[in-house]
Model the fold of this input.
Amino acid sequence: MRKQILAIGAILFSTALYIVGNGLIGVLIPVRAHLDGFSNLALGIIGSAYFAGFVIGCFAGPRLLARVGHSRTFAVGAGISAATVLLQSMFVSEFLWIVLRGAFGLAAASIYMVIESWLNDRATNENRGRIFSTYLTVNFASLIVGQMLFGTANPSSFALFSLAAVLYALCLIPMGLTQLPQPHAAHVPSLRPLHLFSVSPVGVMGCIAVGFANSAVWTLAPVYAHAHGLNKGWIAVFMSVFTLGGALIQLPLGRWSDRIDRRIIIAGICVLACAAGIALATFGGAHRWTILPLIGVFGAVALPLYGMSVAHANDRISRQSFVETSATLLLINSLASVFGPTVAALIMGWAGTQALFYYTAAIHAAMASFAILRISLRHDASGVHREPYEPQPQQSTLATAEFDPRSTEETSAA
Done:
């Protein structure tokens, strides 16, 4: 296994550098915008623009890969990423930042598609699970490192933007020096959201709930933390604790869900996420030692919902439909993510920054109610196709569906 990991070491190193930059810039942009007096609505639209660009990139990426190859696509994505963050440090404008974040989202989708399709090309049926888990570890660890880097400089200066741009430039070096052969271009599977809803309504609605709630938190939680008196160092810790909570609980929770009806787990974590959201909205300003445990609990119950929803949907479909189902759920989640930050920002502008977590609590309460209703109407029919739970990366593209170890049988059959 060590030789296999070393063989893809350049790809994983480039991945780590890029995601460290993303973790840093994901905290920096909302805080800097808040300090410069951007309206709550502008903050939400900036977040929505990123996810809109990401959706476009998920469909433009395969065509770019087919035209110029993986290495050039990666270089284009890294170049756009570096350019956008440098331009944001030079020109502080609401309209320009919206445009630049949209371009960044498109570039990020292309980058993730290159990484995941390249790793998928190097994986075999025997080592796919280990490579996938290594990629997830790099993903979560790098995101936390990037979030912690936010506390190293003044967010009002250009230094953190420049540091992110340096990381995006450096990620080109390992990828540029790799001797691995170019993989085949990824293909876009057929997507049938209405058919999937008829098969797994809880899975589809869970992905919609995640899109509306989590995209708002990723975009606006740093603003909430800053408004509640946390300085730059504690904002970094705040976001890192949120991410770490979700990273640590995913696998144990998933293994537990392998043994029971996953809808029960979905309903349970939504109830807990609702309670944690209300607690953050109500007591978040009390003390930093109150807010940190609360955001950790919130991350532990809110972040696994996407992976749990995907797993539940896949329990209800045949092996041959795995890639199509995962890609459809990704599209549904991404489209909901486009609207989440803007809706949350409007509510925050009307009711204050603490309303961010009242907003997420309402979404999680509605999702819990829907899951409980479905449990009462229909028994668990997932036993025939049940597969072991697999955690999901924080950012996914259509290539993730083929890279997921659960797609092995379908790929072999094809």
In short: Confidence is low (pLDDT under 50) at residues 410-414.
